[in-house]
Specification:
Elements: H1 7-16, H2 29-36, E1 38-47, H3 48-59, E2 63-65, E3 74-83, H4 84-94, E4 98-101, E5 106-109, H5 111-118, E6 120-125, H6 127-130, H7 166-176, E7 187-191, E8 194-199, H8 201-218, E9 221-231, H9 233-240, E10 249-252, H10 254-266, E11 270-280, E12 286-305, E13 308-330, E14 336-349, E15 353-355, E16 370-372, E17 375-388, E18 392-398, E19 409-419
Parallel strand pairs: 2-5
Antiparallel strand pairs: 1-3, 4-5, 6-8, 7-8, 9-11, 9-19, 10-18, 12-13, 13-14, 14-17, 15-16, 18-19
Helix pairs in contact: 1-7
């Protein structure tokens, strides 16, 4: 299923689930035994080879000295009930060496050899994350809007984001996992939707966990439903008395919205003007429209030559209907949805027209062609709000788009809902 990921959404996952950037307990059985073992020893100018043999025999663990390391380096160190890791760290350090624990053995060797053992190459196929659905902004409802244009204006004055690329995803991982440690021998690069990462196994495992969580959340779907209602003053008071003043807004939790919705469904003084629904991926901009486009003659392109004339009609478009344009971003725990919202409603009228040209004498039976004078009653809303899952955002408009019934209230209700998917919510 196509996804839509942006840098902001990926960072949101990191911030909402901080454990992803921390090392999980992924120790092997041998690593657990090393961590749980304690030893007692007294070395006095003892060759490191003999030290390693003693620790292996005392703990019954597979501890060995690398063939590249000199076994003659001398160690003087004593301790009682010392954690094995501390003993390995200090004895190898005093011999000018280092040590490494994996699932098979404990190796004491040169610094370069141990560093090479700690670097692992792992590939991550992220084509499903980097190549996904694109934004789908809604059209503009203004009378003077270009016919081919979209909304154009960004949400909240912030430019729209493009889906994340594999290169940007690689940079994001480099900045948030062991930042500052990706110089040689470590590296991360992207090629044709695949990430190639070289680092310590535990770091790569944390990256894999993050990508799995990102994939789980990106595979979710968010449905946004909107209703435009006309309510009488008394019914509005009963249903939305928490709102204060004109153009009031409120956020209702799931339980409160369910009670309000049940009351509205049975109320008599409620007129449903529009019902819209759209579904998109987290972070994707989507829209829904209910209405129609009307054409009208707004002018003539007149050409006159040697007593003859011709007038070509210039056609305008009047958009009549309701639209929502949203970008939903669910929280990491799935309990709320943040939405950038543009809502517009227009009720257009083409009943007025005037004759084109001066009212001079005309041949009998002819008349001036008419020019339409469109009028539009409109409301518009641009906001960013966080709504509980299956709750609702409510905006009330007073004296707007209700024709002669100016005492009625228009109520826009926007309800985001996380859908259950195979990959999880």
């Amino acid at each position: 299923m196509p996804t839509f990921l942006t840098r902001r959404f990926c960072l949101l996952i990191l911030l909402s689930v901080p454990a992803l950037a921390q090392a999980p307990d992924e120790r092997s059985e041998l690593e657990r035994k090393v961590d749980d073992s304690r030893v007692e020893f007294q070395f006095l100018s003892t060759p490191i080879g003999k030290v390693v043999e003693y620790l292996a025999r005392r703990t019954e663990l597979p501890i060995r000295l690398s063939r590249q390391a000199s076994s003659d380096a001398r160690v003087t160190f004593a301790g009682r009930d010392v954690p094995l890791r501390r003993a390995l760290r200090w004895t190898s350090y005093l011999a000018g060496l280092d040590y490494f624990v994996d699932e098979r053995e404990v190796l004491v060797g040169t610094a370069a050899e141990i560093e090479a053992r700690r670097v692992v190459l792992r590939t991550f196929d992220v084509r499903d994350l980097a190549f996904g659905a694109s934004d789908s902004p809604g059209p503009d409802f203004r009378l003077d809007a270009p016919d081919e244009g979209g909304l154009g204006a960004a949400f909240g004055g912030v430019a729209d984001e493009s889906p994340i690329s594999t290169d940007l995803l690689a940079t994001l991982l480099e900045e948030n996992f062991e930042s500052g440690t990706w110089d040689a021998p470590y590296s991360i690069s992207a090629r044709r939707g695949v990430l190639f990462a070289r680092h310590r196994p535990e770091v790569l495992e944390r990256i894999a966990t993050f990508l799995d969580e990102l994939r789980r959340m990106a595979s979710a779907l968010v449905t946004v439903e909107a209703r435009l209602l006309s309510l009488g003053p008394a019914e509005w008071e009963r249903s939305f008395r928490r709102a204060e003043g004109a153009d009031a807004t409120m956020v209702l939790d799931a339980a409160t919205w369910e009670a309000v919705r049940s009351r509205l469904e049975s109320a008599e003084d409620v007129v449903r003007l529009a019902e819209l629904r759209t579904t998109g991926s987290p972070g994707q901009r989507v829209h829904a429209i209910e209405g129609e486009w009307k054409t009208y003659v707004k002018d003539f392109d007149s050409q006159v030559a040697q007593g003859a004339g011709v007038a070509d009609s210039i056609v305008g478009i009047l958009r009549d209907g309701t639209m929502i344009d949203v970008r939903p971003v669910p929280s990491g725990d799935g309990k709320s949805v943040s939405i950038d919202l543009v809502a517009r409603a227009v009720r257009g009228d083409l009943s007025r027209s005037v004759p084109y040209g001066p009212e001079d004498a005309r041949p009998e039976g002819s008349r001036a062609p008419p020019i339409d004078l469109p009028t539009a009653d409109a409301l518009s809303l641009l906001t960013r709000v966080r709504v509980p899952d299956r709750g609702a955002f409510v905006a009330t408009f007073v004296n707007a788009m209700t024709g002669e019934a100016r005492d009625r209230r228009l109520v826009l209700v926007v309800e985001p809902r996380l859908e259950e998917t195979e990959g999880g919510r």
